[in-house]
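Table S2 (text version). Query chain:
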Amino acid sequence: MGDDIESYTTSLKSSVLQYRYENGRRYHAFVDDDGKYMFPNDEEENDRLDLWHHIQTLSLSGKHHLAPIGDQPQRILDIGTGTGIWACDMGRCSKECQYPSADILGNDISPIQPTVVPVNVRFEVDDVEKNWVYSQKFDYIHSRYMTCSIRDWPKLMKQSYQFTKPGGWVEFQDYDLHWYTTNKDYNVTDNPFFRWSQLMAESVRKYGIEPDPGPKLKQWVEDAGFVNVSAHVFPIPMGTWPKDKRLKEIGAFNILSMLDNLEGITMRALKTGMRWSADEVKVFCAQIRNALRDKSARFQSNFYVVYGQKPQDAVS
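Corresponding structure-token output:
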């Protein structure tokens, strides 16, 4: 995993690898808190996360970021790196990602990242909601897809500001759980998928976790002290109903990721937050799968990208 001598996370404790197993799925073991992270960390879930990497990249027309970070960033931090696919793509000297000068560090509560990585990419096991301890600041701090994962977003923004170099950039790419229909004649309240989005949001809120960070990112970034803040919103369809070719492709991958691992992303949240049984969750997921195949529903959500710069004359 590679040590980072500039971080207090200098070793991978054996307890981190003592995963929890529930209903045939594997979950993290970084902290003794069932509500810390609701989703699995096994291979099936990792495939879903990598598929979301593709969806997000498609949404950004092949780009991995929108912030104008320049050609030679020296230090990059990827918050909640997940499978590490974004960090590895940024580290590769490809046509799209030419940052060979950058030292790229990704952190996550689960050690699920690959061991064979570009020479300028490293990973550490860490909880981004704890106090950060780094001896050097970063040129660029990146975060994405932390929906249903973070309790204190303002604290995360403040720590990002603290550990960004003057003139450096932060970028937050995220969603909300609000799915809506673009078909004005469709009764969304009768759809199990719409009910699922409401139940998931209600469940994670019981643990103090924010399910809808996307629309709030811009204000949080500005409140933290960043300037030159820019916000962008991209539609994320569910299914192949859009006429636009790129949106149709995004929708196809989106519904694939949902159908393939629906129980995995639903089970713990509804069992712990709503006190459902495993059988009740499975029956509900079957209803959702059927509902998702209804093209007339035309469900869509939003993908938010917000970036900002730390003032050049900032003291800290």
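Notes on Table S2: Residues 177 and 197 are 6 Å apart (CA to CA). The longest helix spans residues 43-59.
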